[in-house]
């Protein structure tokens, strides 16, 4: 396999690629170091082990939504969705977006249950151990780490393929260099760093998608309007009709292969949300009243990103591939290039030339690094709390736990860069990993959900069902591939039917195993008390040292909670749980059935007017997303930001910054952002 993916045409220089990968990474790291310093100086924040993993459990809904959007916007979100649009037409982007939005919406219910049942947990795996003990804990530890490894490998293989095709940067170099900046800013700022940089990444991603959409549907000389794109898609269907699509058209929701992808997509993404500790981290970091609105806003805002991005770039590639501006002209794109995620970069080059290539590199860099930071925090919290503190050094203090978190970030980044490089040389692309992940991890989804939702599931069912489900899924996947092709190869095992068999078996087999094992070994009748008994990290040494050495007059804040506050919190969470179950169930049915199925069943082929309306709805939805995750977090954090800027100006001019006064004011404002510190009132009164 050549070291540069795809076509020999390389629009950007290697220097530009290295500049983006390393320069932006270091810029984010420096920005985070500055932010951490400012939070410590002007808000009394100290980087304790609790703050590193949970951000004081006070993050507001706007920032939670931005972080959910950013973490769920993988390289695959943009690259794979554009690939399915290129392969199946207008149905592809919708199947991708709806099939991966419902998990975030449904996870909102699980997030509320986690905060109700285990208010002091740091990771989901702590909750599993508290309820089921060591054996089940180790099973879920393996499934959780497999999820993080698959997601990170997908990010690095997708990102490195794009860097290689656009800049000629060797794939192995891109795999090792992409994580450097992420590791630096994650180490300095912890999960707060990921929330703040996620916000910046999300805004940049939204802006670039707007640029692509307005270029393709408004300003480009060759396409430039939905009507013109529609005409070119009709021509494309005449040249190469889509097998399994109604009338062979790219302009219909009735797509047989697209529907198979839809099922694989739904199943696989349940695993990568419900088993990825990164999403539980965000739920834990959210303040009690903000977890539900944060996840619902995040899920609905995210929907527009793959939908509009792929409707723009995947369809633009189909419309332009018969034009000399397209990099592969006069040939169609090879299947290997589509699977490697090169539809979007080629379409960007065709639409905007070198500017499109630069925008794509920036877009993919943002997607890879923001999602990678969430994976780093997820793995570091698993290592710190679920392995090191649980099995190696139960008496470790906060200072040592922080050190373990930092070490695990570095080690994990090096291991995954090496693993991703190996996958590239083995011929395993991002598209293959995306389809395969459900086969490997989805058998643990139902047992994990029932651990928080059903008091009767016993440890035998919780530990046994995922393992048995994985075995059944691998058998179904490989036997189907062998029967279909006669020989097991990367192409055969990566095709739709074997992946469909493996994914569906993985997700649904625990529906058989869990009841059998539960009733065979006796129901548990769990009282939820051991989950509540999970304790927070001991950071007294860090806080004590910080109170002596802190640079400002602001005393470091400590987290404490009275019985009244806890009762009030539980009341709010109980109400949120009722709302979330009905709201998320309705939105899931709307996304999976009420909207797409009538269009699929009727086989309707989009008219020019309908296609124009379809595109306009996508653009308007992205504006809604921008308000939710771009503007709203700024509004929620306005007082904290104003206080910080004022303090910096006073500092520069040599005057004393009004730290305690400013914080007391900020406490009175319930709309303070996620940059606020925990239990401000207690700290200010103490001062």
From TrEMBL:
The chain crosses the membrane at residues 16-39, 63-88, 94-112, 132-156, 162-187, 199-218, 300-320, 359-385, 406-426, 432-454, 461-480, 500-522, 578-598, 610-635. InterPro entries: DUR (IPR031155), Na/Glc_symporter_sf (IPR038377), Na/solute_symporter (IPR001734). The keyword Transmembrane applies. Its main location: membrane. It comes from Vermiconidia calcicola. GO terms for molecular function: putrescine transmembrane transporter activity; spermidine transmembrane transporter activity; urea transmembrane transporter activity. The keyword Transmembrane helix applies. Belongs to the sodium:solute symporter (SSF) (TC 2.A.21) family. It comes from the Eukaryota. The gene is DUR3. Residues 667-687 are annotated as: Disordered. This is Urea active transporter. Residues 678-687 have a biased composition (Basic and acidic residues). Signal peptide: none annotated. It is found in: Membrane. It is a multi-pass membrane protein. NCBIfam families: sss (TIGR00813). GO terms for cellular component: plasma membrane. Keywords: Membrane, Transmembrane, Transmembrane helix, Transport.
């Amino acid at each position: 396999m050549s070291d540069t993916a795809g076509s020999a045409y390389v629009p950007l220089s290697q220097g530009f690629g290295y500049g983006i990968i390393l320069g932006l990474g270091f810029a984010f790291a420096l920005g985070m170091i500055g932010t951490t310093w400012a939070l410590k100086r002007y808000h009394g924040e100290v980087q304790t082990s609790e703050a590193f993993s949970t951000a004081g459990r006070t993050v507001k809904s706007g920032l939670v939504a931005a972080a959910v959007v950013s973490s769920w916007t993988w390289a695959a979100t943009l690259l794979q969705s554009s690939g399915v649009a290129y392969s199946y037409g207008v149905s592809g982007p919708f199947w991708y977006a709806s099939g991966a939005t419902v998990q975030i919406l449904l996870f909102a219910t699980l997030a509320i249950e986690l905060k109700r049942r285990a208010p002091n947990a740091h990771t989901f795996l702590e909750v599993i151990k508290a309820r089921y003990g060591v054996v089940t804990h180790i099973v879920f530890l393996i499934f959780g780490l497999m999820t993080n490894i698959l997601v990170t490998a997908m990010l690095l293989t997708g990102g490195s393929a794009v860097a290689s095709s656009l800049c000629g940067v060797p794939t192995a170099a891109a795999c090792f260099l992409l994580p450097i900046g992420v590791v630096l800013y994650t180490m300095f700022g912890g999960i707060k760093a990921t929330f703040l940089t996620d916000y910046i990444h999300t805004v940049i991603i939204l802006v670039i998608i707007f640029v692509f959409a307005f270029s393709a549907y408004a300003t480009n000389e060759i396409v430039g309007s939905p009507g013109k794109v529609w005409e070119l898609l009709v021509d494309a269907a005449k040249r190469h009709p889509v097998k399994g699509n109604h009338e062979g058209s790219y302009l219909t929701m009735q797509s047989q292969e697209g529907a198979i992808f839809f099922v694989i997509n739904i199943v696989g993404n349940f695993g990568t949300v419900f088993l990825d500790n990164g999403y539980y981290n965000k739920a834990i970091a959210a303040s009690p009243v903000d977890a539900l609105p944060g996840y619902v806003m995040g899920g609905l805002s995210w929907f527009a990103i793959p939908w509009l991005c792929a409707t723009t770039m995947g369809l633009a590639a189909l419309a332009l591939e018969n034009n000399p501006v397209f990099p592969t002209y006069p040939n169609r794109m090879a299947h290997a290039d589509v699977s490697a995620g090169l539809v979007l970069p080629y379409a960007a080059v065709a639409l905007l030339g070198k500017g499109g290539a630069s925008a794509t590199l920036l877009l993919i860099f943002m997607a890879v690094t923001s999602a990678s930071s969430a994976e780093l925090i997820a793995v570091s919290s698993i290592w710190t709390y679920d392995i090191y503190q649980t099995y190696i050094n139960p008496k470790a203090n906060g200072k040592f736990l922080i050190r373990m978190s930092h070490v695990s970030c570095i080690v994990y980044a090096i291991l995954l860069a090496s693993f991703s490089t190996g996958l590239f040389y083995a011929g395993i692309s991002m598209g293959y990993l995306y389809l395969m992940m459900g086969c490997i991890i989805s058998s643990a989804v139902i047992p994990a959900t029932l651990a928080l939702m059903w008091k009767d599931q016993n440890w035998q069912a919780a530990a046994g069902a995922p393992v048995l489900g994985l075995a059944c899924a691998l058998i179904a996947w490989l036997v189907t591939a062998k029967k279909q092709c006669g020989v097991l190869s990367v192409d055969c095992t990566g095709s739709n039917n074997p992946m469909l068999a493996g994914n569906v078996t993985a997700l649904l087999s625990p529906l058989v195993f869990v009841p059998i094992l539960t009733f065979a070994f006796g129901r548990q009748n769990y009282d939820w008390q051991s989950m509540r008994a999970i304790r927070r990290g001991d950071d007294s040494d860090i806080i004590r040292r910080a109170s002596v050495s802190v640079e400002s007059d602001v005393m470091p804040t400590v987290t404490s909670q009275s019985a009244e506050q806890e009762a009030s919190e539980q009341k709010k969470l109980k109400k949120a749980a009722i709302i979330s179950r009905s709201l998320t169930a309705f939105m899931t049915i709307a996304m999976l059935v009420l909207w797409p199925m009538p269009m699929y069943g009727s086989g309707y082929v989009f008219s020019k007017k309908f296609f124009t309306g379809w595109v306009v709805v996508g653009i308007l939805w992205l504006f809604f997303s921008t308000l939710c995750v771009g503007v709203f977090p700024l509004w929620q954090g306005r007082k904290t930001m104003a206080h910080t800027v004022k303090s910096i100006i006073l500092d520069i001019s040599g005057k004393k910054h009004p730290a305690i006064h400013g914080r007391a004011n900020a406490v009175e404002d319930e709309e303070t952002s996620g940059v606020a510190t925990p239990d401000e009132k207690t700290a200010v009164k103490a001062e």
